[in-house]
Design a protein that fits this description.
- By secondary structure, this protein is an alpha/beta fold.
- It has a single domain, classed as TIM Barrel (Alpha-Beta Barrel), CATH 3.20.20.
- Helices cover 38% and strands 16% of the residues.
- Strands 3-4-5-8-9-10-11-12 form an eight-stranded parallel β-sheet. A two-stranded antiparallel sheet has the order 1-2.
- Strand 3, helix 1 and strand 4 form a beta-alpha-beta unit.
Amino acid sequence: MLATRTLGTHGLTVSAMGLGLMGMSYAYGPADRDEHESIATIHRAIELGVTFLDTAEAYGPFENEKLLARALKALGGDARDRVVIATKFGFTFADGTIAGVNSRPEHIREVVDASLERLGTDRIDLLYQHRVDPNVPIEDVVGTMADLVRAGKVRYLGLSEAGESTIRRAHAVHPISALQSEYSLWERNLEPQIIPLLRQLGIGLVAFAPLGRGFLTGRVQRAEEYPQGDYRRGDPRYQGGNFDANMRAASVVRDVAARKGATPAQIALAWLLSRGPDIVPIPGTKRRTYLEENVGAADVRLTPDDAAQIERALAPGQVSGPRYAPAQMAQIDR
């Protein structure tokens, strides 16, 4: 059974590794989504002790929360009480796509009520602001979120992709238990300033895209080889010369994996797990096979030499291309 970790200083206990559900409904590979396999993957995760389940209203939109509700209902019994559900608010939608950000207090309250209904539950364990809204003071946002905690609809609060000033101001209003942000061997922009700040304030880090959106597994294709509707077609790191450079940079993970009898994904996750007990990766998958592979990372031990080798090869500046296209980079609060 997977061990647990604590996010923040107010007792949010989660599995040491979570499961990102986004790809089951959104962004990756629409042609090969299979609800039966997705639900089976959620069930297998819970069986293995991966009980920290990450969703959002934006995934679908709306469909991912409903999928999670169906998976838990199918298990019956105390399934809801055995998991920690994290979801997010903060976007507006038009024609089934994200149209903008909205963290006005009245919108937050509406979204939380809608998420509770879709999830089939009476409380959200961890509620994140999905992206910082520059038009609404973070004090108003977190104040509204805190009201929802007092009302019993939400248990703990989080932010996603927030910068230093926002984190400090938010935490001064109500304790923030977790920052969700991209962090991996592949993307280490949090190390100079954000991670030290989180540790100073006692805030946990939930690392999304811990496998570099697939690059660290070695199982990737060029952008143009993915179907329409797949996020990776527009990912700068999958395009042109960036792709070739990044495959070369990521080869060190494959080399270490071969030496240790592990998979590249397990090496990448083992590195993250070794970075501190306040860091919880949430690799996403929609298949049991990859879920089981990811969980196996908990048994992989990297030596200091192993870690140094892969950190040198994938040091900041070695990865080619920005992590997002310009429109998405503009939503990052840094």
